[in-house]
Amino acid sequence: MQNYWIVALVLLGVTPGVVRAQDEAFKRAFALYQAGSFEDAHQVLSAVEQNKYSALDLSLLGTIEFQTGDLARAEQHLRSALSKEPGLAGARSTLTHVLLELARVRNLRGNGEAALAAALEAQRISPSDPAILYAVGVLCLQMDLIKDATANLERAATLDPNPATLYALASARIANRDLESAGKIYGGMLKRDPDNAQVNYALGATYFLESQNEAAKPYFERSLSLQPDQVESIYYLGLIADQSGDKEKSIEALKKVLVHSPDHVRAHIALGMEYRSLGLLNESRIELETAVRLSPESQKAHYQLGLVLNALKEQHGAKKELDIANQLRTSSDERISWQLLLNASHGTETQ
Hints:
The chain is mainly α. It has a domain at about 1-125: Serine Threonine Protein Phosphatase 5, Tetratricopeptide repeat (Alpha Horseshoe). About 75% of the residues lie in helices and about 0% in strands. The chain contains 20 helices and no strands. α2 packs antiparallel against α3 (about 40-45) and α10 packs antiparallel against α11 (about 180-190). The protein starts with a helix and ends in an 8-residue tail after the last helix.
């Protein structure tokens, strides 16, 4: 990130040690930003009269606010910087950086379409920048634009085969149901970095999706030995235990998932199904009602809750839940789990 600002400083004539008087505040803020003192840097820039903010001031201000979690103000200042685009015209890399920062902020605020629009504008300016191709690819993947995601991530990986891009590309392969190709990518990553907990998990999940539980299990176990709170590895080991008939071990694993991640919808559903299979209908109902509350669009949660209510002789409630399940399309937690791989990875943000 700092390279973008160094380039901007040089191209705009604001090089360290050769700073004009009117750029003194920016110089101090930038030095604090480089040192990681984001709040102090923000305070310095905030002291500048707003009508005197340059595009570069606004860009740095927005970036600092992104770092401190003030996403609404970050978006406001980044958009203001872009409205002063001529002030950034001498530094194309800084202009695209501002657009990528805006994309990240919008994505975190839940506006994926606007985030993708900003990333695509950056791509229009620098069509062969691997960081931009990566950002566009990830945003497309999150929006289920799988073909576009794959094309951008393949180009990014060709230009810069870094771990984050390779991980995202493998996720795109999974979305295309090309599990073999995804497994090869993860396997290659593990050859270079065998102690990467996330990639061990991802390769295990790929084998699990291929119904190769015995091949998957050691990778989940390795992931947990490296990162004991890796909830997805715990979750899948719970599913493997269930499929091998060890319901006690499965329940233990699913409960552990919920200790680390109480809002883990799929774990609530799986635990509810385990309880129902054991005749523990009230316990099952609690888990499935929690899943429905957390994910009202989950077809599986509604369907399983309907089955439990039917077993409890609550016919009206059962019919209601089963009708909802029939009306819903298969939701994201029942699709092939490429989003789990992507969202849990170290490569979800723009580089």
